[in-house]
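Thread: "does anyone have the structure for this chain?"

Original post by V.I.:
We have the sequence but no experimental structure in hand. Need at least a predicted one for the grant figures.
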Amino acid sequence: MKSISRWLAPLLAAALVPSAVLAAGIESIEVLSGRADMVSGGDALVAVRLSEGVDASKITMTLRGRDDLTPIDVTSMFAVRPNGRYAGLVSGLAEGDYELRASLPDGTGARINLRNHPIGGPVFSGEQIQPWLCRTQLQGGTTPALGAAIDEKCNAAAPVVELFYRSTGNQWVAYNPSSLPDPSAVQQTTTDGGKTVPFIIQRVTGTANRGIYQIAVLVDPTKPITPWSTEQPWNRK
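Reply from O.Q.:
Generated one for you, tokens below.
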């Protein structure tokens, strides 16, 4: 009987503790913008997976480089976002290795190792071929020129962000938030999720690994355009 009571005691104690407390904890940290060892350009979009019942305001986020003796507090970069995730954009990374840690007051938590590479590459390949002709200043057309490269990696000074809408005349027209078009002049489009929305896109033109990229997604310019927006029409693919 004595041995049975010793066995039952922990179970009875656990039954008196709210389940949310028992489940509380930081489950993992994940990089949403790519592989953790292939971060580039000095920033990484990161989400922290929390168990049910965790108070996100109690979390401390710290970042430490390989040669840093004291970690840097980066908690201000994180928050519970509109999509319900505790996430942030970790920025200001120099080239090299880092440890990102999420901690609760009791010392428990999770960590992930990041490796940041230059936006101009290389990330996983060997030395880049030389000579190389940079032509960013010729990137034009309907897109403003990126301008001459600012370094030997063919990097432009900054990405160019534009808005366009598809007109009922089947043409792409620049969308100016300060001078909105007549809604009847904007085509509607239906997403693969079955949602019909105005055919308005955001296009970003920039440089990476000595190349020029363009990314276009459906947006609603009247609402916040952020990685954790819940009201944007893009399908997150």
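V.I.: this helps a lot. The chain has two domains: 25-117, 136-218.
O.Q.: and The chain has two helices and 15 strands.
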